[in-house]
Amino acid sequence: MRKRKPLSMSIQIFVAMILGIIAGMLFGKSIAPIKLLGDIFIRLIQMSIVLLVMGQVIEAVGSLNIKRSGKIIGQSVVIFLISSLAAAVFGIVMAVLFTPGAGASFSGAAKSQYTAGKMPGISQIILDFFPNNVFDAMAKGSIVQTIVFSLVFGLALSLYVHQEKATHLLDTLREINSIVIRMVGLVMKIAPIGVFALLAATTGQMGLTVIKPMIKYLGVYGLATLVFLGLWLIVIGLVTRLPLGALIRRISRMSMMALATTSSAITLPVALKDTKTKLGVKDEIAQIVLSLGMSLNSNGSAMHMAITLVTISQIYNVQYSWGTLAYVAVLATLASLANAVVPGAALVSLTIVVPQMGLPIESIALFAGIDWFVGMLRTILNVDSDVFTSLIVGHWNDALDFPKEAALVEDGV
To answer: ∠ at Cα 63 (62, 66), nearest 5°?
Structure first.
């Protein structure tokens, strides 16, 4: 008798969400003590966040061979940062316009240090990006300062590795990162229990109002992703003068793969092949840009974190000024650099940014059950933006030869 495959983590979490909502409706406020299990789950994720963020960013930057392909890397990183910041800003604008979190009016509103009227000046905000003591920043869980230190350390590591021809530290770091990711994976095995407990307690306290924001949130997030991809295509058309109809057809296979698998890593081989053969980007450009993009370019992740932070603030009636929203955009952009390939990446990402804005950590459970749908939107934007970046870099370096339709048919591509 053939063994049944275990349910995927996304399905388990989705089922846990449904059961948690049902349990909350059935037992009401009497189920509140079960929240302890959810709080333990969140803390287990949080305990490794600083190590996860530092390790991923340092490894990504430290692995770059800046001397060999400095120009290509430099151009790619600039586009990555601009496009990820633009994605975060666009997500914020969409959330402000359509207010997916409005109307929930949950009690126990967050006491954010960034509520309107309490935001520090722009010079202080910029200064606060830079730690004066990295250990103090780590102890306080200041993710922005931790990432800035990791970027500088990673750059120094890259120069050291390629000047001294010594890779032992980088190899050790890779092993540590693998262990940390495995540790997060172990914690994520109990995610269904944690999500069930948090949603049961929340639903028992709030009632079915917990569901309404999620439906609207997914609609707004989906629309934001679709429109942003359209804006990306317009930029590609203006820069490269490529026919957009043909471009859309030729990225369709990798886009469908991204949607189906919700994994940039699994989609990478298909994206690499189609970028070279269907789009005509030269081998070196495609390999460098798409490989870099796996770690350093996360338009989808930046938009996801930005739009989710604004949604949570609306759910808990936390009012943010435009200056605060600008900080949210920068935070989401920097945090997207640490977008590790771990099970339940959406949950892990939110655990990084939600506490930074003083929002209730338990609010993450509201988004856990729709992780699979969120993953689809994040992944297609992540993958397609990597490919679009390779087209621009290829065009700038005269390494783009967009094949004609007849050539594709003849070669069977």
So the answer is: 85
Per-residue 3-state assignment (H helix, E strand, C coil) for the chain: CCCCCCCCHHHHHHHHHHHHHHHHHHHHHHHHHHHHHHHHHHHHHHCCHHHHHHHHHHHHHHCCCCCCCHHHHHHHHHHHHHHHHHHHHHHHHHHHHHCCCCCCCCCCCCCCCCCCCCCCCHHHHHHCCCCCCHHHHHHHCCHHHHHHHHHHHHHHHHHHHHHHCCCHHHHHHHHHHHHHHHHHHHHHCCHHHHHHHHHHHHHHHHHHHHCHHHHHHHHHHHHHHHHHHHHHHHHHHHHHCCCHHHHHHHCHHHHHHHHHHCCHHHHHHHHHHHHHHCCCECHHHHHHHHHHHHHHCCHHHHHHHHHHHHHHHHHCCCCCCHHHHHHHHHHHHHHHHHCCCCCCHHHHHHHHHCHHHCCCHHHHHHHHCCHHHHHHHHHHHHHHHHHHHHHHHHHHCCCECCCCHHHHHHHCC
Residue 152: partners with Cβ closer than 8 Å, 6 or more residues away: none
What global pTM score does this model have? 0.76
260-300 pLDDT tens trace = 767 777 788 888 889 988 999 988 788 878 877 876 778 99
* Domains of the chain by start residue, with CATH: 9-411 (1.10.3860.10)
Q: For residues 217 and 101, is the Cβ–Cβ distance under 8 A?
A: yes
Which of 88-92, 160-164, 285-289, 290-294 is most confident? 88-92
